[in-house]
TrEMBL record, chain A:
<feature type="signal peptide">
    <location>
        <begin position="1"/>
        <end position="24"/>
    </location>
</feature>
<keyword id="KW-0132">Cell division</keyword>
<dbReference type="InterPro" id="IPR007195">
    <property type="entry name" value="TolB_N"/>
</dbReference>
<keyword id="KW-0131">Cell cycle</keyword>
<comment type="similarity">
    <text>Belongs to the TolB family.</text>
</comment>
<dbReference type="InterPro" id="IPR011042">
    <property type="entry name" value="6-blade_b-propeller_TolB-like"/>
</dbReference>
<feature type="domain" description="TolB N-terminal">
    <location>
        <begin position="29"/>
        <end position="135"/>
    </location>
</feature>
<dbReference type="InterPro" id="IPR011659">
    <property type="entry name" value="WD40"/>
</dbReference>
<keyword id="KW-0732">Signal</keyword>
From TrEMBL, chain B:
<feature type="region of interest" description="Disordered">
    <location>
        <begin position="54"/>
        <end position="183"/>
    </location>
</feature>
<feature type="compositionally biased region" description="Low complexity">
    <location>
        <begin position="161"/>
        <end position="172"/>
    </location>
</feature>
<feature type="compositionally biased region" description="Basic and acidic residues">
    <location>
        <begin position="103"/>
        <end position="153"/>
    </location>
</feature>
<protein>
    <submittedName>
        <fullName>Protein TolA</fullName>
    </submittedName>
</protein>
<feature type="compositionally biased region" description="Basic and acidic residues">
    <location>
        <begin position="59"/>
        <end position="91"/>
    </location>
</feature>
Length: 447, 319
């Protein structure tokens, strides 16, 4: 090997070594983008009873939490039969290897204890099984009858800690309960927890009620009722049971909805063969006309910041969705069906997050529930069928609830679906149900 | 009488023995590590494998054409079946004196630019001497060994002769069934060589890096794909909502040489419209990294290249 070649080889070797080091220092990032969503395996243990009499409520809380997280579609609660370890003291760190063995990524432990004053003390801990760290831990005191509410609040804590989003379990749904044969259907206003529990009827069914909507503080409901004379928009106080007519207009008023600040109600007022949008200030009772067109403008819904309104109008010949400023003015059509020019859009509702508008689309002999961005782009149909209508957003804007009528002699039922179109579930109700409206998060409005 | 022992000589011998002994131990232990280079086969997709097999790892990346040594005559046999056929013919060729140089092949081989491409393909490995000769031998060490065993060394191109023999001579095989251990060895050695003999519509003796659109280069660093696959299996982000494609988390992963984590994964940065959601994505990623360890398949001899693994976790394909 001559000297020159030796030098060349040595140089090459050094260059390779140096290059390897440089590669280690500045190597490109590996990238992972999962293509399929998979729920997170989570173990939820029975809440340890502080005394033998607290066993039932402890198990009940566990069941509610398990049901909430499972129905969210983001979590996969592990069957308790697979548990290796039994939690008897939540103040001692679990043996994480036992939970790793059953592939749990998170673990929920808790305790329910009756206090000397009769109140119920609920404690829970959320553990990261992989790292062995506690992710969350809280305790609550409440009256024993509110144990379900506590379970929902704990569910929201777990949901928020694991996903980074606000939860939606501590919320209610107001809807129209339907009973009796189709030709003599009795419709009552009803309210329940978002999971279908604690159903309470607000009206007796003597008058037809439609389109109930929650106020931002969840204490009031506005809805339309067919009493004597023209149908009118009412306000109903959930706590007191009192109700009052919103405004005193000569014609029919319908499709009411609260403004985000709760100070106004926007609705439609029929004038001849047309209807226009009006807003009424609940303090001064003054009304303002927002639209004045020879068309049917209805189903208004505020953007979460209260600056804009989306509504449906047939001013273009067919029912479509328009957006305009909250104070009125020029409206811009945002619904344009690409595959069916005859499709119509109705019942728009703005997401609490402001990023989407949900709607009912009728076309091709089907009713679909979908979402689009406020500028009309990104339209996505989430579910289609014989009759789907009336979407309403969960408080965190992640889930939609709507009603579905299969036709025939049956009646409508409530369903929920993720805004990605996954995890469609039937919401349990005592009978037929329609026109759901989801409340804001109770824990964020009550405090 | 008196024996004069040179103490320095004794000391020198003792030192030499020590050094040699140390060297033996050291070399033997290093050699033991080497076999761990390979990675689990199931991690490479069939598509990746196909592309990798279409070329050679040491080939030049820019070479657009797959390696071709001979123009196809009847059927382009580039698959395993074709290889077997070639192999058999080679055996016969060796056992028999020496097949006459085949006119068709010679001109063909001289024409192409083999010397250059070969040199380009692996300048680091081998200097000039081999440039004159056919490239396949250079590229495959087994093939080189085989050549050396073949003492005949026909001046022209031994490898090419084999290729030539492949197609025409398929009948003479059964005749020669004499037991010859040397021949068996040659047979075994030549199996690898024949793998490189491909036919095509145009000659290109230089080794290409897989197909023109292949990803053989990427496949060289297979620990990356293996690591990605392993972590991905455990990555279950809790978000699949709107703007999911905008969420990302950059995480650096300190590794030990045994494939376990040297320390907790470090969240370098998170991106997304909602910081809390982005943070949750990062935590999901950290859980996945920790949960899926130990990554025992990581090649120890390349430890320096994965001592700290920078990764980005995203949700681009979730919706």
């Amino acid at each position: 090997m001559n000297r020159r070649r030796f030098m060349t080889l040595t140089g090459s070797t050094l260059a390779m070594l140096g290059g390897g080091h440089a590669f280690a220092q500045g190597q490109p990032r590996l990238r992972i983008d999962p293509t399929e969503f998979q729920p997170v395996p989570i173990a939820i243990t029975n809440f340890v009873p502080g005394s033998p009499s607290d066993g039932d409520v402890g198990n009940g809380v566990t069941q509610v939490i398990t049901n909430n997280l499972k129905r969210s579609g983001l979590f996969a609660p592990i069957d308790q039969a697979a548990f290796i370890e039994r939690i008897s003291n939540i103040d001692v760190a679990p043996q994480f290897q036992n939970w790793k063995t059953i592939n749990a990524q998170a673990l929920v432990t808790g305790r329910m204890t009756r206090q000397p004053d009769g109140r119920l003390k609920a404690e829970f801990r959320l553990w990261d099984v992989v790292s062995g760290q506690q992710l969350a831990g809280q305790q609550y005191f409440t009256s024993p009858e509110y144990w379900r509410r506590i379970a929902h609040i704990i569910s929201d804590q777990i949901y928020e800690r694991m996903t980074g989003e606000k939860g939606y379990f501590d919320s209610r749904v107001v809807f129209v309960d339907e009973t009796g044969p189709k030709e003599r259907r009795v419709k009552r206003l009803a309210i329940m927890d978002q999971d279908g529990a604690n159903v309470r009827y607000l009206t007796r069914g003597s008058d037809l009620v439609l389109t109930p909507r929650f106020s931002p503080n969840s204490q009031e409901i506005t809805y339309m009722e067919f009493g004597q004379g023209d149908p009118k928009v009412y306000l109903y106080n959930i706590e007191t049971g009192q109700r009052e007519i919103v405004g005193n207009f000569p014609g029919m008023t319908f499709a009411p909805r609260f403004s985000p600040d709760g100070q106004r109600v926007i609705m439609s007022l029929q004038q001849g063969g047309n209807s226009n949008l009006f807003v009424m200030d609940l303090r001064s009772r003054s009304t303002t006309r927002l639209t004045d067109t020879p068309a049917i403008d209805t189903s208004p819904s505020y953007s979460p910041d209260g600056t804009r309104i989306c509504f449906e109008s047939d001013r273009g010949g067919r029912s479509q969705i328009y957006v305009m400023a909250a104070g009125g003015g020029a409206a811009q059509r945002i619904s344009f069906s690409k595959d069916d020019t005859n499709a119509t859009y109705s019942t728009p509702v703005w997401s609490p997050r402001g990023d989407y508008i949900a709607f009912t689309r009728q076309g091709g002999g089907q009713f679909s529930i979908g979402v689009m961005k406020p500028d009309g782009s990104g339209e996505r149909l989430l579910t289609s069928g014989f009759h789907n209508e009336g979407p309403t957003f969960s408080p965190n804007g992640r889930v939609l609830m709507f009603f579905r009528d299969p036709g025939g002699n049956g009646g409508p039922s409530l369903y929920s679906v993720d805004i990605s179109g996954r995890n469609e579930l039937k919401v349990p109700t005592p009978g037929f149900a329609s026109d759901p409206a989801w409340s804001p998060l109770l824990s964020s409005t009550s405090g | 009488m008196k024996v004069n022992i040179d103490k320095t000589l004794v000391a020198s011998i003792a030192l030499h023995v020590l050094v040699l002994g140390w060297g033996l131990v050291t070399f033997s232990s290093k050699a033991y590590i080497a076999p761990e280079e390979s990675l689990p086969v199931d991690i490479i997709s069939s598509d990746q494998l196909a592309k990798m097999m279409a070329g050679q790892k040491t080939g030049k990346k820019e070479e657009p054409k797959p390696k071709v040594e001979k123009i196809a005559e009847a059927k382009p046999e580039e698959d395993a079946v074709g290889k077997v056929t070639e192999k058999k013919e080679l055996i016969k060729t060796n056992s028999t004196p020496e097949p006459p140089p085949k006119p068709v092949e010679k001109p063909v081989e001289k024409k192409p630019e083999p010397p250059k491409p070969v040199t380009e393909a692996k300048p680091k490995e081998e200097p000039k001497p081999q440039e004159k000769k056919p490239d396949p031998a250079k590229e495959d060490p087994i093939a080189e060994l085989q050549k050396k065993l073949d003492t005949k060394k026909p001046p022209p191109k031994p490898v090419e002769q084999k290729v030539a023999a492949v197609q025409p001579q398929q009948q003479p095989k059964p005749k020669e069934r004499t037991f010859d251990p040397a021949q068996i060895q040659r047979d075994l050695d030549k199996r690898a060589t024949t793998r490189h003999e491909l036919t095509g519509s145009a000659l290109n003796a230089s080794a290409s890096l897989g197909a023109a659109t292949g990803t053989a280069v990427a496949n060289v660093a297979t620990w990356r794909g293996a690591f990605q696959g392993a972590v991905k299996r455990c990555f279950t982000p809790t978000y699949n909502g709107q703007d999911a494609d905008q969420y990302e988390a950059d995480i650096d992963i300190p590794m030990k040489i045994d494939g376990s984590l040297a320390a907790e994964p470090i969240v370098v940065a998170v991106r997304g419209p909602s910081r809390s959601i982005a943070q949750a994505v990062a935590e999901s990623a950290k859980r996945a990294i920790v949960q899926c360890q130990v990554y025992s398949f990581m090649p120890k001899q390349q430890y320096e290249s994965w001592k700290l693994i920078p990764m980005t976790f995203g949700l681009k394909d979730m919706l």
